[in-house]
Amino acid sequence: MIKYDGERFWVCIEFRKEVKLYKPRSYLAIDLNFDNITIMIVRGRRIIKIKRFPIPLRRVLIHRIWIERIMKRYPKRWKYVKGVRNAIRRHGKRMRSILDDWCHKLANRIADLAKRYRAEILLEDLDKFRERRKGSASFNKKLALWCYRRLQSYIVYEAMERGVPVSFVDPKATLSRCPFCGSKLVELPNRVVKCVNCGFVGDRDVTACTNLILKHARCGGV
């Protein structure tokens, strides 16, 4: 497509790439939290890799706090003063830049890991998460900055580019049910969960990854 705006010509060229998805031999489950991203790679009954990636939420919150301070200092004038608007715009741009850069790098790393171990990526289906959750002001602020949609879209893009299959799994009860007996889990300090029935004790995020894999397997996975 070619477009002329009176001064310059703009050319839009579309590229298409045929990608064949490989048949997976293992799973790479991803559990998304406010503070970190936990991944677990499993082949058969053997855990190959568990890794946790911190989210730069604090760096983003600093810029969010500065925006709120500026708005509080100029409650009626911040929309009309150019210098104040530019300061808010700079902080907002920095927030988006931090999250965008982090999402790109992490998506690349996850897709490379999945291809190395010939794994299928399992993501949580969080389409209705925001509508269902109601919390405090601090919780809602974190939720507003939580870039799970962006990260998931980048992971899907990078995975498809490498021929890595991706599936979305319903995350319901992955944090509250025991992966061994299905009983209720009780949360303990330091992100630890315990089963009230069989006595299983494990990491909260790793347990969620395990339940994602089990759910997918029951629905016809590898």
The coarse overall form would be flat
Provide the spatial order of strands within the biggest beta sheet.
5-4-3-6-7
Q: In DSSP terms, counting alpha (H) and pi (I) runs of 4 or more, how many helices?
A: 6
Radius of gyration: 22 Å
Mean pLDDT: 85
How much helix, percentage-wise, in residues?
40-55%
What's the order of the H and E elements? EEEEEHHEHHHEEEEH
Task: Describe the fold and architecture.
By secondary structure, this protein is of the alpha+beta class. The chain has helices at 57-73, 82-116, 129-132, 137-145, 148-162, 204-218; strands at residues 2-4, 9-11, 26-32, 36-43, 46-54, 119-124, 166-169, 185-188, 192-195, 201-203. Helix 1 runs antiparallel to helix 2 (82-116) and helix 2 crosses helix 5. The radius of gyration is 22 Å and the shape is flat.
Notable traits:
222 residues, alpha+beta, 3-stranded antiparallel sheet, 6 helices, 10 strands, flat
What is shown here, in short?
The protein has helices at 57-73, 82-116, 129-132, 137-145, 148-162, 204-218, and strands spanning 2-4, 9-11, 26-32, 36-43, 46-54, 119-124, 166-169, 185-188, 192-195, 201-203. Helices cover 43% and strands 23% of the residues.
Tell me the layout of helices and strands:
Blueprint: E1 2-4, E2 9-11, E3 26-32, E4 36-43, E5 46-54, H1 57-73, H2 82-116, E6 119-124, H3 129-132, H4 137-145, H5 148-162, E7 166-169, E8 185-188, E9 192-195, E10 201-203, H6 204-218
Parallel strand pairs: 3-6, 6-7
Antiparallel strand pairs: 1-2, 3-4, 4-5, 8-9, 9-10
Helix pairs in contact: 1-2, 2-5
